[in-house]
Write a structure and sequence with these properties.
10 helices, alpha/beta, ten-stranded mixed beta sheet, globular, 337 residues
Length: 337
Amino acid sequence: MISIIVPVYKVEKYLRTCVDSLLSQTYKNIEIILIEDGSPDRSDVICDEYQKKDPRVKVIHTENHGLSAARNLGLQAARGEYIGFVDSDDWIEPDMYEHLLFSLEQNHADISVCAVYNEYRKSTLPRYEVVDNVYRGNDAIGALIRGQLCNAVWNKLFKKECWDKLTFPEGIIYEDIATLYKMYKNDIIIASSSRHLYHYRARSGSLTRTKSMRGLKDYWNAVYNRYRFLCEHLTEEQVETFRESMLLQLAGAAVETWRWVYDIRKEDRDYEHLSNISGFIRDRFPRFGYRSWEKTFRVSFFFVRYVTPGSFFASHMINSLIRMTKQRKNKFEVANT
């Protein structure tokens, strides 16, 4: 059986689409665990309606403690041999879990992964492209570090034992980034599929799209702690193999921080945190020689040397220009496929 864990908070508008997509799965041996996290809207009523309608739906009502706490409650309640996660404002294709389970069992894997669509109000675009592959050991660790498998739990199916000694850290944003790397070990096997089976709703009110100093700090800390963990737990040979990729991930986190900090009120900016990021990257990330010219350019010349209003504005403008260029390129590629 597959246990699908769905935290629910302030999603009255989207919840039915999400749960209907789960109940419509071609793989029928599932339990759907709705963790109603003290939602102030009618989400609790909708959850109870589905529990009465279908015996596969189980509802747990709790006071609001956040996404991580809700997922942890779901893990405690799960009875299946396999675990899946779906965010309550998203939806999935009818055969997503049948496909992921087949891929996992066929390849004797611990985790199976699919590609993801970003759903905007007026368009659908690929968010995470995943290739058909089976990753083992070093390849799996490398795929995680390089972001080839998406650092989220919702486009994956896990063997339950992957979570035996693992929970989500509570009270932070970007909890997936702060969690997934801890289950990547030398003997792990990950099967990936290029099929787009998960639909991620990109909406302005979501936690990760609402930028705040707290969120930026949580994002950097998650990537930085992953870097430290891997340096401590990998062999010296593995650290050398993946050092460049890990530094590129840290550079990317620094760029993302500086990309958004201009939009945060001056009085809310944590200048000490920004200076620490700048110093760390400046000491470890070389100007030239890395494959990512874009990160090298931005880190070297715009984002690590100055913590002044002018530098924030410059980084904001450059990032906006690069972001618009990428979006136009993606739309062009989609239109011509």
